[in-house]
Amino acid sequence: MNKDTLYKYFSRQLSAEERKAVQEWVDESEEHLAEFMSERAMFDASLLLISSEDVESSSKNIGRVKRMFVQVLKVAAVVAVTLCLSHIYNTVTFERNIPMCELKVPAGQQMNITLADGTNVWLNSLTTLRYPALFAGDERRVMIDGEGYFDVEKDAEKPFCVETSKGTIEVLGTVFNVDAYSKCDNFSTALISGRVKIMADNQEYYLNPDQMACRNADGSMSITEIVNYDHFRWKEGIISLQNESFMQIMRKFEKFYGIKIVVDKQGMEQFAYTGKFYQADGVRYALKLLQHDINFDFESDYENNIIHIK
Known about the structure:
- Helices cover 31% and strands 31% of the residues.
- By secondary structure, the protein is of the alpha+beta class.
- It has 3 domains: 1-90, no CATH class; 92-229, Jelly Rolls (Sandwich); 237-309, Phage tail protein beta-alpha-beta fold (3-Layer(bab) Sandwich).
- Strands 1, 2, 3, 4, 5, 6, 7, 8, 9, 10, 11, 12 and 13 form a 13-stranded mixed beta sheet that branches. A 3-stranded mixed beta sheet has the order 15-18-17, covered by helices on one side. Strands 14-16 form a two-stranded antiparallel sheet.
- The longest helix is centred in the first third of the chain and has 28 residues, at 30-57.
- The protein is globular.
- The termini are far apart.
């Protein structure tokens, strides 16, 4: 199969008839499936390279040596992702021997991917998405550890299921955001359009547009109205804060900038802040803006990638 055709298939640039021809070609033999998987691995890995270039282009004052170092890191990251995907393709299978793919978004980056059914997914920093290269059976199921914004392709015969460590979201054709990092207690689903069913702790919850479900400390689920859509602009590289505590802000900065922040100063829990930051401006710029409203100093440990709040 022509590689250009496969890449157009992955990026949803083919007509329905052309997509059907590719799917029939994949079904013809194990060799065709293996070729399809190999090219899909390279396509997915290239997304990380593009994302890195976007981040780099926003910093115009980077020195030549640093630019070379960043380029080496980008290539290494793409190679690592490709090797990881190849290993998964060879060891993990789905229904009808359809391999599972896995994407891991590095700290400080976001990624956008289109799944085989046309569903568009934005993945936030430190998020892992596992998905089949082709959807088979009577449902479309993916697994996420982290935060994702899903624009689901409608298919009345195949519900789309997002599985997390804290619950499962089921939809047909819907736009929603899910925040479910396995290392954190938080779990939330915000519905932009359509309708979703959330299954968690043997309970079912239904959301209508402009509603958000959040898991409470006792494990119960609260459903409220969405009052600020800026929170979901992370996929545009915007960090939006709405009356959030200093410690919450530092945890967000850790996720968005890929750095460890240690708060050594006492009493910072009492401070809250509302505002927006562009991720591309960098963590030092964001901290300096916070200093206009909150009294603190900070010190950077570049060798260990740590910032100390003093």
